[in-house]
Design goal:
Elements: E1 2-7, H1 10-23, E2 28-31, H2 35-46, E3 49-54, H3 56-65, E4 70-72, H4 77-86, E5 94-98, H5 100-106, E6 117-121, H6 127-140, E7 144-147, H7 149-158, E8 162-164, H8 169-202, E9 206-211, E10 214-218, H9 220-226, H10 236-239, H11 242-249, E11 255-261, E12 264-272, E13 278-285, H12 286-303, H13 319-333, E14 338-341, H14 348-357, E15 366-370, H15 376-384, E16 385-386, E17 399-400, H16 402-405, E18 410-414, H17 421-433, E19 435-436, E20 445-446, E21 450-455, H18 459-464, H19 470-476, E22 479-482, H20 493-507, E23 516-517, H21 521-527, H22 533-547, E24 552-553, H23 555-565, H24 582-588, H25 596-603, H26 610-624, H27 629-636, H28 640-655
Parallel strand pairs: 1-2, 1-3, 3-4, 5-6, 5-7, 7-8, 14-21, 14-22, 15-18, 18-21, 23-24
Antiparallel strand pairs: 9-10, 9-13, 11-12, 12-13, 16-17, 19-20
Helix pairs in contact: 2-3, 13-14, 20-22, 21-24, 23-24, 26-27, 27-28
Length: 656
């Protein structure tokens, strides 16, 4: 890194050269004053100079004009005194003219001189400065001027003798040493920056720093993404993809978004550096984030169990659903046992996990077991663990039970009604004593576990029939939650359908175009009883994703699913005389059921086939609408095309 000394006068060039020869310094020395010196300094910086040295007005101008540091050769009191010594005999009153850096230091000691000296401060070498010096000469009746090369030029026109204030060799030497210290510091800084840039270029994440609309730095990942070799100094509008630029333009403060950039999804975060418009962004590949998430889950799963769901995952704005979520949120703040009661597919485990994640035990494990899925002996060993040699096939060293694994967290017992009386007795003991003994063991192990149980069985009836222990029932049934069947919160079906369709599509990595839902299907979905609840709705959407390739799920697709897959209504929800027609009625009737006259007439058709009931319903509706097929299709909850196709089919059969 080169050091360049810009000397305003020729004598300084000779003095600097002599110093360099004497001390073996390798410094480039050029001669140039004011504008000429500024041009020489700019050229030197462009060619790689790290530090510039100069003095007086040339130093002031260079400091403003170049990006590299500029070291000043200070004008010392000794330099002024030497100039005064040389000016003896040229007058009785002397004017010392110079820039603020010279005059400021001189004001402190000028009063100590016996010789009258007038400080004259100048700012530049313009005509106005020239007039300022002339006015000071006339006002103060100065006999002789002392100053730099600019004042020396003025004095010729003013007719006043002038002595050049020359910098001594010691001041030049001090400036050279300061320049060398700056060069050493800049070399260390440059090396540090090079290491930092290398590190930033090697990370997989994209990093970009900008000052308002101008890019200051972009690492290799960003450059590869935008297809450039460099973009520092360019406008972000000119070099960034439109989606990324729009995100930055519409963001303020810290913000984040998932953007499609090229062929991949990126998670982009914006961070403000200061309040002056500077900021930086990071770009993470969504695939990389998913990989990290899987590794974290695998690591955590190796030491415990994880609850995936929170209350945010429970979709539904119906009053019934809002009440359940509100009550579950309250239960999360307690530490008592919870019993969740509800039909299959109503989200009992999601509620249990949400309660865990909203509780003070959220950092602990969430351990779940389906009591109906394991035989009695295996369930007992899973729950309470066993010691080595407890039974044939026991693992060497024994095995901790689920109560031990759930220590500090939550144990979820699904289908608790399916447990045997023997297992129930041991469960009661653990819940009472907060201690567990492994099978074949002799010592009690203290456990701190919150139990959340779930069932779709009538537990109290089981208690009355002697199938479930009464004392265990009351131990579990401290805080009870009753889940809501989907047929009792039909207004949630549109939001649930949209949410679950997006989840299923995303699980397939978004292959193809995401299907759209025709709003006309929602009345049909709301009319169906959903015996399998949310789980059945999810199965339907999975089926439709596999069979529909047009990119839109409409009424015809729902009708096909109803005909192929729909189940009879849940027992007790439809009159037994009409239960055989329930699934088909769900297909025809929107959520707001048809008038009572049509419902009664339909109920008076026992023994008819499905096709006969369907034909009768369509004929009745067409009669009510005076043959208006559009209105009839709307009342029936099917498309006009489907209605026309069925009528065409019946007409063909009649003609045959």
């Amino acid at each position: 890194m080169e050091i360049v000394l810009v000397a305003p006068y020729q004598r300084m060039v000779r003095d600097a050269q002599e110093i360099c020869r004497m001390y073996g310094e390798r410094i480039k020395i050029v001669h140039g004053c004011m504008d000429d010196g500024v041009q020489l300094g700019k050229r030197a910086v462009e060619n790689g100079a790290g530090v510039i040295i100069s003095r007086g007005g040339t130093w002031v101008r260079l400091s403003e004009a170049v990006s590299a540091p500029v070291v000043e050769i200070a004008v010392t009191p000794y330099d002024v005194l030497r100039a005064l010594q040389r000016a003896r005999g040229m007058g009785r009153k002397f004017g010392v003219a110079g820039f603020s850096n010279v005059i400021a230091s001189m004001r402190e000691w000028v009063s100590m001189l016996n010789v009258p000296v007038v400080p004259i401060e100048i700012d530049d070498d313009t005509e106005q400065t020239r007039n300022t010096v002339l006015q000071a000469i006339e006002r103060e009746r100065v006999d002789c001027l002392l100053g730099d090369t600019t004042i020396l030029e003025y004095s010729v026109d003013f007719g006043v003798p002038c002595v050049l204030i020359e910098s001594g060799k010691e001041a030049i030497w001090e400036a050279i040493q300061e320049a060398k210290r700056l060069v050493a510091a800049r070399m260390v800084e440059r090396k540090r920056h090079a290491s930092l840039h290398t590190a930033l270029d090697r990370v997989h994440q994209g990093i970009l720093v900008a000052d308002r609309e101008v890019v200051q730095f972009a690492n290799r990942t960003v450059l590869q993404l935008i297809g450039r070799d460099a973009c520092a100094g360019l406008s972000i509008r000119d070099c960034l993809p439109p989606a990324l630029y729009e995100f930055l333009e519409n963001s303020s403060g810290r913000d984040s978004e998932i953007l499609q950039l090229g062929a991949k999804l990126w998670f982009v975060e914006r961070y403000p550096l200061l309040d002056d418009g500077r900021f930086f962004i990071t770009l993470h590949l969504v695939d990389d984030i998913e990989t990290i998430e899987r590794r974290v889950r695998q690591r955590r799963a190796g030491t415990g169990h994880v609850a995936r769901y929170t209350f945010d995952d429970l979709v539904g704005q119906s009053p019934a659903m809002r009440f359940v979520i509100s009550r579950a949120t309250q239960f999360a703040q307690a530490d008592s046992s919870v019993l969740i009661v509800g039909e299959t597919g109503t989200g009992k485990e999601m509620l249990a996990q949400s309660i865990h994640n909203a509780s003070s035990r959220a950092q602990g494990p969430f351990v779940g077991v389906n009591c109906a899925a394991l035989p009695e002996q295996l369930l007992e060993s899973e729950l309470f663990g066993y010691e080595e040699g407890a039974f044939t096939g026991a693992k060497r060293g024994g095995k901790p039970g689920l109560f031990e694994l759930a220590h500090g967290g939550t144990l979820f017992l699904d289908e608790i009604g399916e447990t045997s009386l023997h297992v129930q007795q041991r469960l009661l003991r653990v819940l009472q004593e907060r201690q567990v003994m492994r099978i074949g063991g002799e010592r009690l192990i203290s456990v701190d576990v919150r139990v959340v149980a779930a069932t779709n069985q009538p537990l109290w009836r089981f208690v009355q029939e002697g199938k479930f222990r009464k004392d265990l029932f009351f131990r579990l049934d401290v805080l009870r939650l009753n889940t809501i069947p989907l047929r009792e919160r039909r207004e949630d079906i549109p939001d649930l359908t949209e949410h679950m369709l997006y989840q299923l599509w995303y699980q397939r990595k978004g292959v193809g175009v995401r299907p759209r839902l025709d709003p006309a299907i929602f009345p049909l979905l709301q009319a169906y009883d959903w015996p399998g609840n949310v789980r059945e709705l999810q199965s339907m959407l999975d089926y439709l994703l596999a069979t529909q390739v047009q990119g839109k799920i409409g009424v015809e697709a729902i009708e096909e699913w109803v005909e192929q897959k729909a189940l009879p209504p849940v027992a007790g929800t439809v009159d037994s005389a009409t239960s055989s027609e329930g699934a088909f009625r769900s297909k025809l009737e929107p959520y707001d059921a048809p008038d009572a006259k049509q419902s009664v007439a339909l109920a008076q058709l026992p023994g008819r086939t499905m096709e006969e009931i369907e034909r009768w319903a369509i004929e009745q509706t067409l009669a009510e609408t005076s043959g208006d097929m559009t209105r009839a299709a709307q009342m029936l909850g099917i498309s006009r095309t489907t209605l026309w196709r069925k009528m065409k089919q019946w007409q063909t059969e009649t003609m045959a």
